[in-house]
Specification:
heterodimer; A: about 325 residues; alpha/beta; Rossmann fold; 8-stranded mixed sheet; 11 helices; globular; B: about 325 residues; 4-stranded antiparallel sheet; binds adenosine-5'-triphosphate; binds adenosine-5'-diphosphate; binds iron/sulfur cluster; binds magnesium ion
Chain lengths: ~325, ~325
């Protein structure tokens, strides 16, 4: 399965998303491009506020109000989502793209049983085969490692633990057999032992059912353990991308390097952690120059005047940093 | 414990009133900590790690007397905090401060940073306005904030800055003990690293003793001298950080290790995936409390509570697997 040979399922091209604010335009997503191959888990990682959720929601046509897509294209199976009508987007969400959220209560209706909700989705998706739905729902829940799926169908969301609710939400996302799932921090609210169960499950879904997942998280460890490709976000831009192996073995962008060095580890003993000085900048305004420059230890004079774009570094790895300028020109 | 003991918790038992039955008609008592004992060495960091609901915050809140335990003692330099009356407690609180996970909920949104940091100084010390101002500036600079921050309101601070203000206030009266209840859980990785380093510096400068609570084993390993692993209100393993890191003995500790995602796709370590979830403390399993999820559960575990076994000096775990190991070490027939 060489990723280069496959036609991308999703291709985002120079996407811009902005929100009007009293202080001016907040540019939450600033010209990002990436491609997701069928059957892979594509990770989007970055600190809070860097534009992960807004990007994820844009793939479902759900950019939160009063935001808007101010440029670029989102090509899904060959058609541009940004040019679709609300009706077309609704159809897409019900059948081909689904979303999993951090908070299951956002997706589960407290007034209906898991069964009512799950069967509702299945009927809407495939009204023809009425009889098979119940069996399909039971086997789906069983596949997701939920004990006693029959009785679970009669349970209300509040009767389930956090991990079970998360599984129930994944079941709903899978019920319409979508081609793509956008999972926004699906394990962030869970304990580590439950997180391990859910990550295992998502990887199994990819491997057994060929599900394609865009996986959004702030946790570098989670990305390393689940994703095939990774895009590192900083202030609404992708600063580095490549295969998970490439990025974690040899991070090239100073921000990625800084993030990894800032992680606590027992081996580091109690020596001071390496720190990225300062804090993430402001998304309002145009921001000339490298967005990471104010915090970068390698900052050069032209980093403030020009904005670096992603430069190839060999393999599939790319970084938006002038340190690699010459390599970029050479290839 | 080798060094000088600052805190000695003995047989602590805490219950919460919870409702049960139809529409909560019956009131029931849930025992969240039971016969809980733990010591803190002066000047050291004890990391307490465990999953949500295992009783970490209950422990912290009992030490602060925000909740009243039904049994046990908490000795602070030999004096039982639980036996203090209101007045004595007020004096005692100068010696121990707590910092919470969400810095914004612990800072009064209507007060400026200056007033927030001044509050404990005004309550407990008799300073002139000039001395007060000088002390506030000094405290802010200790946590890496300049004078300009004095005039800000909490909503004008980032999460990391707000946590710095909370720390400045916490160390204002030179306490001996700082209880840190998930102080970095709400922060980004890069900001977490700044706060973790700041905690190290404050500890050295003020000879502070830390009780550091977290659900992140990696963070606890990084920051602690000693680690206590909690499961359903009980310490299942305790020891020096290095001993636990090198040779975790309890199956739950091992599972926590292997569940923590590593930023290294080639780590190739074995993964232990525990089944199910932590049972409710309203109805804890008999025998070993971990037996419903333990990958190594034996028949014995379902009805007999394991005892604490020391595996090396100052390192112990409560698990029946260690009974067998010890017996075989001693050459006793296990059957
Ligand atoms: N005021 C309360 N009334 C009733 N039950 C409570 C109360 N506070 C806590 N509990 C219960 O006591 C148990 C321990 O709670 P505690 O807050 O100490 O857990 P924790 O280890 O700090 O968890 P977390 O990691 O989620 O902060 C939980 O089952 C919780 O639901
Ligand atoms: N509904 C909204 N209205 C205004 N600004 C928003 C809205 N949603 C997100 N933003 C802004 O867009 C930026 C990116 O947000 P988000 O995608 O949620 O970040 P992440 O998911 O990476 O934490 C932030 O500056 C955020 O404040
Ligand atoms: S472009 Fe310059 S400032 Fe930006 S990350 Fe690279 S070296 Fe640092
Ligand atoms: S006593 Fe038994 S159930 Fe408990 S941790 Fe040890 S082996 Fe597992
Ligand atoms: Mg988000
Ligand atoms: Mg807590």
């Amino acid at each position: 399965m060489s990723p280069a040979s496959a036609q991308p399922l999703l291709a985002i091209d120079d996407l811009h998303i902005s929100f009007p604010t009293p202080r001016g335009e907040l540019r939450a997503v600033r010209g990002i491009s990436f491609q997701v191959e069928p059957g892979e888990i594509f990770g989007i990682v970055g600190e809070s506020g860097c534009g992960k959720t807004v990007t994820g929601r844009s793939i479902l046509g759900l950019v939160p109000q009063p935001g808007r897509i101010s440029g670029g294209r989102i090509m899904f199976q060959g058609s541009d989502l940004t040019a679709m009508s609300q009706a077309e987007l609704r159809h897409l969400r019900g059948n081909r793209i689904a979303m999993i959220f951090q908070d299951p209560s956002a997706a589960l209706n407290p007034l209906f049983t898991i069964g009512q909700q799950l069967l509702g989705i299945m009927k809407r998706h495939d009204p023809g085969k009425r009889a098979g739905h119940l069996d399909a729902a039971v086997s789906l829940l069983a596949d997701l490692g939920l004990p006693q799926p029959e009785s679970l169908l009669d349970s209300y969301p509040h009767q389930l633990s956090g991990g079970m609710q998360q599984r129930a939400m994944i079941a709903m996302a899978l019920a319409a057999e979508p081609d793509l799932i956008v999972a926004d921090e699906p394990t962030t609210a869970l304990d580590v032992t439950i997180q391990a169960q859910i990550l295992d499950l998502l990887v199994a879904l990819k491997e057994k059912r060929g599900v394609t997942i865009v996986f959004i998280t702030h946790d570098l460890g989670v990305v390393a353990e689940t994703c095939d490709h990774v895009a590192v976000f900083y202030l609404g831009q992708i600063v580095e991308q490549g295969t998970a192996r490439e990025i974690f073995k040899a991070p090239r962008h100073p921000y990625t390097q800084g993030l990894l060095a800032a992680l606590p580890s027992p081996d580091a003993g109690q020596d001071a952690l390496k720190v990225i000085p300062g804090s993430v900048g402001d998304m309002v305004g145009d921001g000339v120059g490298c967005a990471f420059a104010p915090r970068c230890e390698f900052r050069m004079p032209h980093c403030d005047r020009q904005t670096p774009t992603l430069m190839p570094l060999g393999g599939q790895q790319q970084a938006a940093c002038f340190l690699y300028d010459e390599i970029g020109e050479g290839t | 414990m080798s060094g000088d003991t600052l805190i000695d918790i003995r047989g602590l038992t805490v219950e919460y009133k919870t409702s049960a039955g139809l529409l909560g008609s019956r009131s029931q008592r849930t025992r969240v900590l039971e016969d809980f004992s733990l010591q803190l060495e002066r000047g050291a960091t004890l990391g307490v790690v465990g999953e949500s609901g295992c009783g970490k915050s209950t422990l912290a809140n009992s030490m602060m007397r925000f909740v009243e335990p039904i049994a046990g003692q908490i000795f602070f330099e030999g004096r039982d905090i639980l036996a203090l009356d209101r007045r004595e407690l007020r004096g005692q609180r100068r010696q121990m401060q707590i910092v919470f996970q969400n810095p914004f909920s612990s800072l009064n949104p209507r007060l400026r940073v200056k007033t927030i940091v001044a509050e404990p100084l005004i309550t407990h010390l008799d300073l002139t306005p000039a001395q007060l101002e000088e002390r506030i500036i000094e405290l802010l600079s200790e946590v890496g904030l300049n004078e300009a921050f004095m005039r800000r309101f909490p909503h004008e601070l980032s999460g990391g800055q707000a946590q710095r203000v909370a720390l400045a206030r916490a160390v204002a009266l030179n306490p001996k003990l700082l209880i840190l209840d998930e102080p970095t859980s709400a922060l980004d990785v890069s900001v977490q690293a700044q706060i973790v380093n700041l905690l190290g510096k404050l500890q050295r400068d003020h000879q502070l003793t830390y009780l550091f609570i977290s659900h992140s084993l990696a963070l606890v390993q990084h920051i602690s001298d000693y680690i206590a692993v909690l499961y359903l209100g009980e310490v299942v393993e305790y020891g020096r950080q290095a001993d636990i890191t090198r040779a975790p003995r309890h199956p739950y500790t091992r599972a926590l290790f292997s569940s923590t995602p590593q930023p290294d796709p080639e780590s190739g370590r074995e993964r232990i995936i525990l089944e199910g979830t932590v049972p409710s403390p309203k109805d804890p399993p008999g025998g070993c409390r971990f037996h419903t999820r333990c990958p190594q559960v034996m028949e014995l575990c379902r009805h007999k509570k394991p005892k604490a076994h020391a595996t090396e000096a100052g390192h112990w775990a409560t698990c029946h697997l260690l009974d067998a190991e010890l017996e075989s070490l001693q050459g006793v027939d296990a059957s």
